[in-house]
Write a structure and sequence with these properties.
Layout lengths: L2 H14 L4 E5 H14 L4 E6 L6 H7 L5 E4 L2 H9 L7 E3 L6 H9 L4 E4 L2 H13 L4 E8 L7 E4 L9 E2 L3 H9 L4 E8 L2 E4 L2 H21 L6 E5 L15 H6 L2 H8 L8 E6 L1 H4 L3 E13 L2 E6 L23 E3 L7 E6 L8 E8 L7 E4 L21 E6 L2 E4 L9
Parallel strand pairs: 1-19, 2-3, 2-12, 3-4, 4-5, 5-6, 6-8, 6-9, 9-11, 11-12, 14-16
Antiparallel strand pairs: 1-13, 7-10, 13-14, 13-18, 15-18, 16-17, 19-20
Helix pairs in contact: 5-6
This protein binds pyridoxal-5'-phosphate.
Length: 410
């Protein structure tokens, strides 16, 4: 989509639906899914991580475009199934699943439970047995090493996620012995937000060697092997977009070698991801309520800030605040530095420090890029009790108000 047609739509949304608003365009998601299929030559099925954006209308739209859904709470499982996903297409990850969540998911026909510990396996076995079910499970393994370059690391150091690879031979026989669970595959998610193709390919090679070793040792012919994608997006000016062809080029040969082995011939390889699919398809649109001059700085005070979009304010895994890419809706030549803050009574509610934009005046609209993933879902929406921001899904250039009310946001 051209910048002009995005802006025309954002302006329409701001005028007819309101601000602050998250606007999600489906067209770039379709393009992303197609780019992934093309780059990997269809070797991976995609699994969408609901945590990145669980808006119900978006989930409903995604069910016709992505093979699987990964949920990390019973709330996400409910959102997915209410949006029309068959429960059999869902997997359930997360280190702190409670018994009532396990029960509801197993009873509800969950596809695969992703086991994060032996403790969880024992609880799931007991619950599945009490329901007269045999639950399919994937065992999540935490590698001992993650290459440099991932924005957040879930393994390679002490970690709550999955079973440490060093412990796997202690744990695996115990899981295999549980009568009400059937191990149908393995799962690794060890890092997110990486823009370095070599590091991502190297990480996948680590997964492959763990998968092969465990399957050989326990004579498993897995139905599924899940690869946590780690594919990153360029959040900040100066970040280079990920070279997807280089990632694929660095791993396709290894994937084919695995698939060439008899035990993996009918294994489905799955890429689990959120931000790479939907992150760049979303904008956060906020209106400038007032502009203040303070001790030599211009400060634009906006109608939405960290309460709606914590990551853009720099408080979601970022040590130093770096401005998200953003623009003034309607454009113009960048001319002037301005700080942009939200409406909250705290100095940490900042969307931009010294960003250079066309001159900003009261009433102008700012569009924060890369807001399709980890926007509203990752934000302290109740802080200072503003209303929920609008959410808008744009299909074929037609914006649809898909706002959730505060009480509906889990
Ligand atoms: C288990 C698991 N799956 C999927 C994801 C989605 O990651 P991303 O949105 O970076 O693709 C995460 C992110 O933390 C995760 O922990």
């Amino acid at each position: 989509m051209s910048g002009a047609s995005v802006d025309e739509c954002l302006l329409r949304v701001a005028t007819s639906i309101g601000t602050p608003s998250f606007v999600y365009f489906t067209e770039p998601i379709v393009a992303r899914a197609a780019a992934l299929q093309a780059a990997f030559g269809g070797r991976f099925a995609l699994s969408y991580a609901a945590k990145s954006n669980p808006n119900p209308a978006l989930l409903g739209w995604l069910k016709d475009h992505v093979a699987f859904l990964d949920v990390s709470s019973i709330g996400e499982f409910r959102l997915g199934t209410q949006a029309g996903w068959e429960p059999a297409r869902a997997s359930f990850t997360g280190p702190g699943k409670r018994d009532f969540e396990l029960k509801e998911a197993i009873e509800g026909g969950l596809g695969e439970l992703v086991l994060e510990s032996v403790r969880e396996a024992i609880a799931a076995d007991r619950i599945a047995g009490s329901l007269g079910r045999v639950q399919h499970v994937l065992v999540r393994i935490a590698p001992s090493r993650v290459p440099k370059g991932f924005g957040d690391q879930m393994a390679g150091r002490p970690s709550a996620f999955g079973i440490d690879v060093e412990e796997i031979h202690e744990a695996f026989p115990k899981i295999l012995a549980l009568p009400n669970l059937r191990v149908t595959g393995l799962h690794i998610y060890s890092g997110t937000q990486c823009l370095k193709p070599d590091a991502i390919a190297e990480n996948y090679r680590t997964f492959l060697s763990i998968f092969r070793e465990v399957c050989d040792r326990y004579d498993l012919a897995p139905e599924k092997l899940v690869f946590g994608s780690g594919l990153g997006i360029p959040y900040h000016d100066g970040d280079k977009p990920l070279d997807l062809a280089a990632v694929a080029g660095g791993i396709i040969g290894d994937l084919d070698a695995l698939k060439g082995e008899a035990r993996f011939a009918s294994t489905q390889l799955v890429l689990e991801l959120g931000r790479y699919l939907v992150g760049e398809a979303g904008y956060f649109v906020t209106r400038v309520i007032s502009v203040k001059e303070s001790r030599g700085n211009r400060i634009g005070i906006c109608d939405g800030g960290m309460n709606n979009h914590l990551p853009a304010s720099g408080h979601f895994g970022m040590v130093i605040h770096r401005n998200y890419a953003m623009h003034k809706v309607g454009g113009g030549d960048p001319a002037e530095k301005i700080d942009l803050v939200g409406p909250l009574c705290t100095s940490i509610d900042r969307l931009a420090n010294g960003v250079v934009l066309p001159r900003i005046e009261e009433g102008d609209l700012i569009a924060v890029h890369n807001s399709g993933a980890y926007g509203l879902t990752a934000s302290p929406i109740h802080f200072i009790s503003h209303a929920a921001p609008r959410e808008v899904l744009v299909e074929a250039n037609a914006p649809r108000d898909v706002t959730r009310q505060l009480g509906d946001i889990a």
